[in-house]
Amino acid sequence: MEEKKVSIQKSIIWNSAGSMVYLITQWLISVLVVRLSGVETAGILTLAMSVNNVFYSIAMQGIRNYQVSDMKEKYTSGIYVSSRLIICILSFLVCVGYALIAGYSYGSSLCIVAYCLFKMAEAFYDVYAGICQKKWRMDWIGKSWMVKGILSFVGFVAVLAVTQSLLAAILAMALVSWLVIFLYDIPRAKKLDTIKIHLKEKKNITLMAECFPLLCYQTMSSVIPTIPRLVMEKLLGGVALGIYGSVAAPTMIVQMGASYVFNPFITLFAEQYSSGNIRDFWKTFRKCMAAILLISVVALGGGKILGHWGLELLYGDEVAAHEDLLLPLIGCTILTAIVWFLCALLTVVREIKGLVICNVIILPVSYFGAYLLIQQYGMQGGSISLAVSYLIEIGALWFWLLRKVKQREKQHMEQ
């Protein structure tokens, strides 16, 4: 088996470049769907994306950061893969059930289910990416995201242009993603570790039970930003959601770009925390936060200067007329990135209790805030409610992280 590692710098570059290509191609899909099929179709796609954020989070189990910070290898790679396969199947079945009873139109329900197939491919691949990350082969992860991004984009756009069927375009995207997993990702991961899938292995249940609080956190974490969009669709209609989703799409680059900066460091954080090297832990923390803040400043400045021009170029006058939504949405993505970072660190230090408590507290804030503020301020209310929720959560997450790291520092000094 190949055990060769690459440098942290090379890992970050490849992982960031590949992930950014994937993110941009997914964003371009949301742009071109407006151009090719109109705002109403974009609204259906936004709805499918929003709904599947929840099922994707369930399938992810919140285990990736747990997996790559499993320094003692409590569970084998085969167990991580097996448990992920089981939960992906269950998540898809729950999505089908939800689509049947949620009261959406027949066409929207089919698109939701089809998009779930696509998101399950992402979730299943994530566990193989975790294997590569733990072995410091994130160059393979980046290359995989590049291939998936380009091929899924070409497949989606080509099928939509020819058939004018959003359902067919989503299915094409899902098919391409699954093919890349079986033809590229799995063979690469098997070069790094022995991976034997045992669906009946008792350790699958043990792992899922141990990480059930992480699943709860991950699900709640995805529900929090989804709530304002679902409330918006109910109160303001699909067209408003389509406009809001279109303006929000470019801002995802900020959020994901920030995550691509700190995600490669999760294993390093785990190594530093496990060894009691708290000084270097905080040093790495400051570097990651500085990078997030730098990205934030650039994003806000770019949005202020180029916002209207960019929206008009991408979507036309109908969406560009709502440029006032852009800067608040950029602010929300910055806060989201900080929340993700702090949540990842709480997983690394195994402060799962605090992680769950923080998200439980924020759920009702997001729900009631969305209803009150969207009724009061329209689409802008969705961003305001999300920002308020995240500011409260950041404060709570910081409290739990600081408390846990201080405890570890004290333990290390007493040894």
TrEMBL record:
Keyword tags: Cell membrane, Membrane, Transmembrane, Transmembrane helix
A GO term from the CC aspect: plasma membrane
Keyword Cell inner membrane: no
Statement: the UniProt record of this protein carries the keyword Signal: no
Membrane topology: Multi-pass membrane protein
Membrane-spanning parts: 12-36, 42-59, 79-101, 107-128, 140-160, 166-184, 205-227, 247-268, 288-306, 326-348, 355-374, 380-402
Protein name: Lipopolysaccharide biosynthesis protein
Species: Oliverpabstia intestinalis
Lineage, opening ranks: Bacteria, Bacillati, Bacillota, Clostridia, Lachnospirales
